[in-house]
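Reminder to self: keep the SMILES exactly as supplied, no canonicalising. Ligand is guanosine-5'-triphosphate.
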Amino acid sequence: MIVMIEIGLVGVPSSGKSTFFKAATLKDVKIASYPFTTIEPNEGLAYISVKCPCKELGLSCSSCIDGIRFIPIKLWDVAGLVPGAHLGRGHGNAFLDDIMQASALIHVLDVSGGIDSDGNPTDNFDPAKNIQMLEEEITYWLLGIFKKDIHAYQKNPEKFSEIFLKRFSGLGITKQHLDTTLSLSGLTAKELLGFEDENLFRFIDKIRQLSKPIIIAANKIDLSSAKNNFIRLKKRFSEKIIIPTSAECELALREASAKQIIDYLPGAASFKIKSENITEQQREALEFLKNFLIKNGTTGVQNCLNKIVFDLLDMIVVYPVEDENKFARKDGKVLPDALLVKRGTTARELAYKIHQEIGDKFIAAIDARTKQQVSADYVLKNNDIISIRSGR
Ligand SMILES: Nc1nc2c(ncn2[C@@H]2O[C@H](COP(=O)(O)OP(=O)(O)OP(=O)(O)O)[C@@H](O)[C@H]2O)c(=O)[nH]1
Ligand SMILES: [Mg+2]
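Structure tokens returned for the bound complex:
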């Protein structure tokens, strides 16, 4: 079964999570400059963009726009996290349960320095402070979940992994995450089961790093105070992926495009004005957006979504087809599906992702480009077009 990947937007209040969400999904959610505008979570579809293979193969394809293919992912926008959320400050951290299934997080960080850790307006705030704070609060959230089972662990220490995985598998945390963490943390099971807060925090923090990787959207890059902060953050946190974004500019571009005022594809470095009936105010706004793109390349929103899937989660795109000669489904639709799978996925695993039965009755797979048969344990490459033969 194909499981759509889920990404959560997190950050302090007023950092621009809902603006990012609305820009990516065009869902009509509330945006405002006061903290805790969002309380109930918003869920929507965003899209990863890739080059569709149809152009290279000279195929006529109805699944992409001008050779750019958009693949859906699920995006979540939740309430803001403030320091001490795990102690109940702000709206606490229980709302993170709504994004339990997320395989990665986008930390929307206001790099203009215009808001503090509580999302209140200020001047010259150092956004670096919010990076560590947010990571800590997410670890505390996971720690709270872990502690629910302390009695069970004490009663059955030999069943540590079993109890842990039962609790955490619903949060996208796997045996591999657990085993890697145990070996990396250097903690013995005995130390861990001593339940000292410091050891537990270290252990859960490692689990968080592996299972909920974070990309940072350095947002509000359109504001003049943002550039220097961004450069400083990039230097200081060179190990992290930090993408400059202007959720507000992306939202304006997407809305203008939805209203047929401009031609703009998400992630593009330019747009074309297509409506002749625009007001003076609209013209000024478009001029601002044009200059923004000239200066910054793109708004960064699409880049952020792409990077999280391809760099942080190390996924690839594969195109299953039924007819390898026409690169199509049986009904003739060219390149009907684009699937995101983990790098390392094999042909047989792909068959299982399409359908349990196709996996069970797997006979062979054909690389549609070369028409060569590949084995069940052939490791798929990015952009592969694969036809799977299975028995009846
Ligand atoms: N200049 C600028 N302002 C932005 C940008 N993104 C968001 N904003 C503004 O920041 C304010 C807060 O935006 P929201 O999207 O509501 O922020 P949030 O993180 O969802 O806030 P909460 O729901 O309260 O947690 C609004 O006034 C937005 O217009 C951006 O890229 N640039
Ligand atoms: Mg919001």
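Points to follow up:
Residues 11, 13-19, 31-33, 35-38, 79-80, 119, 219-220, 222-223, 246-248 surround guanosine-5'-triphosphate (ligand 1) (CB under 6 Å).
DSSP finds 14 helices and 13 strands in the chain.
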